[in-house]
Amino acid sequence: MATQIIQSAAATAAQDVGMGRVLDRVQQAGAQDRPHVVEFQHVTKTYNAGLANEFTAIRDVNFVVADIPDKGEFVCILGPSGCGKSTILRLIAGLEPQHPATRGNVLVFGKPVAGPAADRGMVFQDYTSFDHRSVLGNIAFGLECQGVDRRERNELACHWIGQVGLNVATDAEKYPHELSGGMRQRVAIARTLILQPRIILMDEPFGALDPQTRMNMQDLLIQLWRAVEATVFFVTHSIEEAVFLGDRVYIMSTGPGRVMKELEIEPADRPALEMARVPRFQETVYYIRDLIAQLEAQANAESK
Ligand SMILES: Nc1ncnc2c1ncn2[C@@H]1O[C@H](COP(=O)(O)OP(=O)(O)O)[C@@H](O)[C@H]1O
Ligand SMILES: [Mg+2]
Hints:
Layout: E1 15-17, E2 20-22, E3 38-47, E4 55-65, E5 74-78, H1 85-93, E6 103-108, E7 111-112, E8 120-123, H2 135-145, H3 150-163, H4 168-171, H5 181-193, E9 199-203, H6 211-228, E10 231-236, H7 239-245, E11 248-253, E12 258-265, H8 272-275, H9 279-303
Parallel strand pairs: 5-10, 5-11, 8-9, 9-10
Antiparallel strand pairs: 1-2, 2-12, 3-4, 3-6, 6-7, 11-12
Helix pairs in contact: 2-3, 2-5, 3-5, 5-6, 7-9
Magnesium ion binds near residues 85, 86 and 203.
């Protein structure tokens, strides 16, 4: 709970910027009566540790996403290419070689991550559907693995085809090569949500889509997320996307990756296309743009 998270007593107060509130520091875990959804405690990841090509992707990353009853938060991780966004996401997912962390603790619902599990579902940027399976077969795949019988899993898959805005009559038997990029990502989202994960991990899922399709997908995602009450971690390098989608935005910088700033953002009250024209929305976007430029300049100066 917010009151149980230690706030810095420093004089620098939180600052309101448009639709956002820039916290005076990235929140860390304090005493708690219920486990946090996700907690990073001094997490460092060094790839190829001990070898000549060892590389530290993230260093001493700390943050905490609190558990809010009956409502998951939408958390966006924003930062330049190579700053360690996917590393953080895959550590939460428990996927190798990011998992395990080199140092520190990655906790999900208060327990150290031991590997992938059904409470966490992942949606990637690349189209990861099975080419030889239809839309229905792809969406039902996870349930099939869990041993759910054919009738039940097909019924549920048809429900989810509709939920993500596809058409059961015309799309269910299509194969991935017959689908547009937007449709494929709808399938990827349905395939993940059908398993009802409590945490949904999304790694630049709309990065390859044209701007119009991307905004439609953002609107769809917000609508689905409100219904499923899961916590979403959404990686992007689009500032507009983060401000539109996020309740909370972490801003990372490179060399090695760290979480530098945390913002709380008011929920959007209209579709993405309209939101983009709202001055308060733009104010937050411009603030973050300047902040990232500043962080990059700082990182460059430090590396010289
Ligand atoms: N398996 C790996 N082995 C070695 N280096 C890696 C590996 N995965 C990522 N890296 C490096 O770690 C850094 C962070 O990667 P990543 O988390 O993918 O960043 P982002 O998703 O922000 O673009 C990059 O410099 C990348 O080249
Ligand atoms: Mg990445």
